[in-house]
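[audit] Reproducing an earlier prediction to check determinism. Same input, same settings, fresh worker. If the tokens differ from the archived copy the diff job will pick it up downstream; this log only records the rerun itself.
[audit] input (323 residues):
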Amino acid sequence: MPPKSGRGSRQPLVKHQAEPNPANDAPNSRKRRKRPAPNAQLVIITGLSGSGKGSVLKVFEDLGYYSVDNLPIGLIPKFAELTRDSSSIRFAALVVDIREGLSLKRFPSIYARIRREIPTSLLFLEADDETITRRFSETRRPHPLGNEQSIAKSISLERQLLAPIRRLADLTVNTSKFTVHELRDFIKEKFRGAKEESKIMIYLTSFGYRHGIPTDSDLVFDVRFLPNPNYIPRFKKLTGRHPSVARYIRSFPQTIEFIDRISELLVYLLPHYIREGKSYLTIAFGCTGGHHRSVMITDQIRKHLSDAGYRVKVTHRDLSKPV
């Protein structure tokens, strides 16, 4: 079955493009290492037939997850790789079920492999025999293992076949005790989606220390340790938004490391601010005059946070002021 994209997740899977090597601008430049979108997350949903996997997948879709139903097991590693490297998808969920047949034996090794590549959770759904029997009776659909055997024997066989996968689960849910709405609320409580992160508004601003620190800042980062383009004549009248200036600043390894580390720190912190009920956060980056380094860094952090699913607005406070 072809992938089914969730609402708000209809963009194609796209890999980041590597930054060009700005060898002409700095002697010690080196190629920017490719990094995945911060904190990409994958949820694999599996379990007994009739346990509600389709309904749960729709909940993840509503949470902003890119959703795929019944993806062949052999394609899971590639899907995980695309999710990890995509700039447009951070949260993804997929369903694996008994229709995979003998391929299910490969799942434990595949699951161990992808957990090393991307944060992955395994959600196993089950229900008691009576509930499953009733659900199949109500829908008038045959059990996938039915053939000529009874529904009771089919359920028993499926439990045996899925037992090795069940033991790997991070969360096992018996859906017999839930109504549809209760199950929906339970999943929403357990899994954080892209829409949760959209609740906070992030304001990024660049500034020059000679003009003072923005008084409304929640977090302030000093980037004056980076090489200053202002001392290079051809860059003096340009800003950090000019491609040649940005390439020059990025050409130094400490710049790339700073961007990566600060991005990872912010992606870690923001969910905690959200849980505290914070609706906006102002983050300031300062250099000497507010024209070059702080401007370039602010624009780069904006890209990382936008890729992570956050709403971001940027202000370059001191660009119009004299250097």
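[audit] rerun output stored. Observation attached for the diff report: The radius of gyration is 25 Å.
[audit] end
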